[in-house]
Amino acid sequence: MTTTAAPAAPATTAPPAVVSARGVVKRWGSTVALDGADVQVGRGVTGLLGANGSGKTTLFGLLLGLHRPDEGTIRVLGLDPSTAGPEVRARVGYSPEHHSLPPDVKAVDFVRHVAELHGLPRREATGRASDVLWQVGLGEERVRPLGTMSTGQRQRVKLAQAIVHDPVLAILDEPTEGLDPVQRDDMLALIRRVGHDFGIDVLLSSHVLDEVERVADGAVILHAGRVVDSGSLHELQASNAGGLVLELDGDPRELLLALHRRGYRLEVTKGRLFVDGGPDVFDGVRDELARLALPVRRLEPRRRSLEEVFLAAGLVGGQARQPGSEPNPATGADAAAGAVPPVPAGRRAAP
Fold this sequence. Notes:
The chain is α/β, with parallel strands linked by helices. The protein has twelve helices and 13 strands. The chain has helices at about 55-65, 85-90, 105-115, 120-135, 150-165, 180-195, 210-215, 235, 255-260, 280-290, 305-310, 330-335; strands at about 20-30, 30-40, 45-50, 70-75, 90-95, 170-175, 200-205, 220-225, 225-230, 245-250, 265-270, 270-275, 295-300.
């Protein structure tokens, strides 16, 4: 009797990275803005974290194809922006950090113009501009000149023009800069909506840690032009290096004594026990719970805040460069910091 081998299961492959960069070096004269940076950005909303001057805006200029890296390779949506800049910019939306908006132009006319630059016909661009301004909360204000708008409204206009052509990826440079707490909350909610309801992947830069913690699925941490940590927020925050969170039904004193004898560091806050003792802490806590037969309500890895992630990397309180030492690309180095590309195309980190 002959037998036929079962067909092999199809190989599963991870979805391609939205942005992939390896060994990227970029110098502005004697200043090294990026020093061998390795960046992987997946789907969803990703925060690019770092102090002012850590290389965030320079990296954005490279991703948009506005400059070439001195060393290393970059791929954005599978394309090399150094040689396929127009193709990359056609599929990417960009919101610059600075408010270089024409003051006498109406919001709807400006957003329509950007849509046309991306290849939309005039009638479709007009409709899309009006629709997207309604989506970002400026429907009633869409005919106001940009120069009469508040900082919060201009930030919404910049978000609108970044997504008006339905890009695959939206790059947002400091989208909450200059906003008050209420405006910041509204902007973060909009960004979360863009990344999850609209299906547009988002890469946003910020030096405010809790902003990224609230809105992002993953983070890339830049320091002195290098990536010092990256991954999903779950990976960054739920490491055993952060210890365990434990809640019991009953008196925890016996367990506290047992864990203290093991040399674990303990903290009790509002009925929760935080235990830190290295990579074997889970096994030790499990063994003591079984020995004492204690009823457990909750036992899970402790989620570290992004501030703790920064502390673990030795970054909080350190400086990559003095603020402002990263050259302004708009002054001969980087048009990305000050203008939309004219082609179709809480807690703070280190101060």
